Amino acid sequence: MAVARGVGDPVTEEEIADCLTRIGRGDRAAFARLYDATAPKLFGLCLRVLKDRALAEDALQEAYVRIWQKADGFTPGGASPMGWLVTLTRNLAIDRLRAARRAGAPADETALVRLVAADPDGERVAVARAEARRIADCLQELARERAEALRGAYLDGMSYAALAERFGVPLNTMRSWLRRGLAALRECLER
Q1: Of 84, 118, 167, 177, which one has the fewest beta carbons inside 10 Å?
Q2: How many angstroms separate the CA atoms of 7 and 30, rounded?
Q3: With b meaning 16 or more CB within 10 Å and e meaning fewer, what string describes 143-168?
């Protein structure tokens, strides 16, 4: 890694794994290198999940603190190094989203309103809010894991593979959960 690179320059999985191993031993230069190489992608992930630049910046900072603290737990040859970083960061951002929801922020409803009304005016906002409320109510009728999987896939943009990994189920099971969850939502909304 003698060649100097700029922020966001592509790196290989091996370079990321090497940086994580060195960070686990307290190497600050490796941490700076990892940050420069991965921050743009991880920030984009935080922004997609949280949909707010300031919250995403805070989540990214916290993610790198955790990376520094947990790098010694990364096992080379196990999970993909970038996958490890993405999973850690995504889980942190989702935890922040849930915390905001528990604190009373209507995170899910706001995301649903954005999906329903891309060009809001007074009447459209009212209709979008009503639709979002109906969808949120229908999501509450689903089993908690199924509702979280639907939110992850359709509101947070998570891949089916990432959801399957997060919930510890096979990929085809996750596909079934999402298909059945959408069918249940449709049925609920038609009532």
Answers
A1: 118
A2: 14
A3: eeebbbbbbbbbbbebebebbbbbee
CATH 3.40.1110.10 describes domain 13-102: no
Structure tokens at 114: 């954005």
Q: What is residue 127's three-state secondary structure?
A: helix
Q: Please state the domain extents for the chain.
A: 13-102, 107-190
Name 161's Cβ contacts closer than 8 Å, sequence gap at least 6: 171
Alpha carbons 183 and 181: distance in angstroms, whole number? 5
User: Are the beta carbons of 46 and 154 closer than 8 angstroms?
Assistant: no
Structural class in CATH, domain 107-190: mainly alpha
> Residue 157, by phi and psi: left (phi above 0), alpha (psi -120 to 50) or beta?
left
Distance CA 76, CA 25 (A): 14
pTM: 0.51
